[in-house]
Amino acid sequence: MFALHILGTSGSRPTATRSVSGNYLMTPHGGLVIDCGEGFQERLVRQDLRLKRSKTGKRAKASKVRAILLTHCHLDHCWGLIPFLHTMNLDGRTEPLTIIAPGAPDGSDSKPDFNDLFGAWREMIEDEYSRGRMGYEVNWVLIPIEDELPIESPFQPLEDLHLTAIPTKHGVVSVAWMISSNKRPERRLMVSGDTSRGVTSFKSDSIGGELDVLIHEATYSSETHELAEVWGHSTAEDAAEAAAVMGAKLLGMLHLSSRISDPSVLEEEARRHHNQSFVCEDGDIIEVSWGGEISVSRREGDAWTGLSIG
Ligand SMILES: [Zn+2]
Description:
With 310 residues, the chain is of the alpha/beta class. It has one domain: 4-Layer Sandwich (Metallo-beta-lactamase, Chain A). It is 23% helix and 28% strand. The protein has helices at residues 40-54, 75-78, 81-90, 114-130, 225-231, 236-245, 264-271; strands at residues 2-6, 22-27, 30-36, 65-69, 97-103, 138-144, 151-152, 161-167, 175-181, 188-191, 213-217, 250-254, 277-279, 285-288, 294-300, 303-307. A nine-stranded mixed beta sheet has the order 6-5-4-3-2-1-14-15-16. Strands 7-8-9-10-11-12-13 form a seven-stranded mixed beta sheet, with helices on one face. The chain is globular. The structure holds zinc ion.
């Protein structure tokens, strides 16, 4: 079973109730982090502590993380990385960790990008090694994005899962991450990262089948679709259209602009195109069983209760 923990649903900046981007996917063979904006590690620790208190048997442990997947280099998606690596070291981690991100091809003038950030971060970590203060190896994997076709990750950290990067449209080099099970029938989940509408490969034909769950940004409502176009983001309608063309059974929307005061507006808009749509809250857990059952649970205090969608 996959369990996706949504640990940040705000776009660009935190609000009183929503943090910036960050997701944790728990699988029987270990965990994957997909984006980790500012404060990610604290959110993960709190989620795990609350789960422990909830006595549901679910957990979201930092020690289980096998790889970190980044969608793009905007800071609300990656600024929590280095502090998180540092804490895992203090916690005595010895298992290697892989970080996978999209890179601009050689000679490209796409700035900023992970070529520069990885260079700086790598230096910081190597300095820790040289002082004998780093207890685990960090593998930095950059996937050069040349065109708009899906790319198999050159490194597959979990034996029962398969990672594919899907190039998106956001003004800087950016990808969505698709995580599929190797078992049949295949189960598939995608996290869009930031993107405007009309991604070339967001079609079930291009990604080799339909999705169980699509987590897609919906920064704006269609009332302000001009802003979505200007800033390389999507509206709830755009997200729902992407869910429909990829045959997603469930759409979870996040990365809300702080100007959205009533998320139900986004839900109403999306459900006109895709009935099984909802706006994620921080702490939501979306589970997909190997048999294909999908459930969403929402946190209140230290307890999670099932949410019915649509
Ligand atoms: Zn962005």
